[in-house]
Design brief:
There is one protein chain. With 210 residues, the protein is an all-beta fold. It has two domains: 1-122, no CATH class; 124-209, Sandwich (Immunoglobulin-like). The chain has strands at 9-11, 17-20, 32-33, 43-45, 57-60, 64-68, 80-84, 89-91, 99-104, 114-119, 124-131, 138-141, 147-154, 166-170, 177-187, 190-195, 202-209. The radius of gyration is 23 Å and the shape is elongated. The two termini are 44 Å apart.
């Protein structure tokens, strides 16, 4: 009778695999192996049979997997996921020596026992320019699924005038949109900032995300 294994991760999407001629440890199918080939990446043990020390082993190093997670632990889509290699569960931070394994593909709420993770997913950089549209904010489609950090600046070689005199940015949504806010002085000797109505200034933006 075939042996039943409890997988730490279940594959849910296409993957890329790497082969190791001689396994350094014994593994079960679906085991999560940190630094699986020495380059820092996490690997998921492929196949349907257990791997003994010294046996050839194949690791999946890309793709989406349902990863074991404590019921009370929650994630938002795009959150970093870390692995507790002692208790074999996903964690929300690296605190405790947990290693980064990827990004949550979708939200995981309390009560669920797995989080779907795109393993080894790295932060990418998107950048561009946008002309203010006179409203506040001016939305920018970054092409990212989720923005993790961003910065904006006026593209000009001269000192800013009264409109706009300041820029700020918000990316609290989950659709990868960057909202650029422009501000101007109220006027005269009143330096209080109010929403800009400028529709010609060009803004350079850089966003980091997934």
């Amino acid at each position: 009778m075939p042996t039943a294994y409890t997988a730490q991760a279940i594959r849910r999407q296409e993957h890329h695999e790497v082969n190791v001629a001689s396994s350094a440890a014994a593994y079960d199918p679906g085991d999560i192996v940190l630094n699986c080939i020495g380059d820092g990446r996490v690997g998921i043990v492929a196949g349907l049979e257990a791997v003994a020390i010294g046996d050839p082993v194949t690791f999946y190093v890309t793709g989406q997997y349902d990863v074991n997670c404590a019921s009370a632990t929650t994630f938002s889509a795009g959150d970093a996921v870390f692995w507790d290699n002692t208790n074999n569960v996903a964690k929300t931070t690296a605190t405790g020596g947990y290693q980064y394994i990827g990004r949550a593909v979708r939200a995981k709420v309390s009560g669920q026992l797995v989080v779907r993770v795109e393993i080894n997913r790295q932060v990418v950089v998107a950048a561009g320019e946008v002309t203010l549209d006179g409203s506040n904010p001016t939305p920018v489609a970054t092409g990212l699924s989720k923005v993790l950090a961003a910065t904006v600046s006026l593209k000009q070689a001269t000192a800013p005038g009264d409109d706009p005199s300041w820029l700020s940015v918000d990316y609290s949504g989950t659709d990868g949109t960057l909202n650029v806010y422009a501000w101007k002085n109220t006027g005269g000797t009143d330096p209080t900032l109010v929403a800009s109505t400028n529709s010609t200034a060009v803004v350079s933006w850089v966003a980091w995300g997934v």
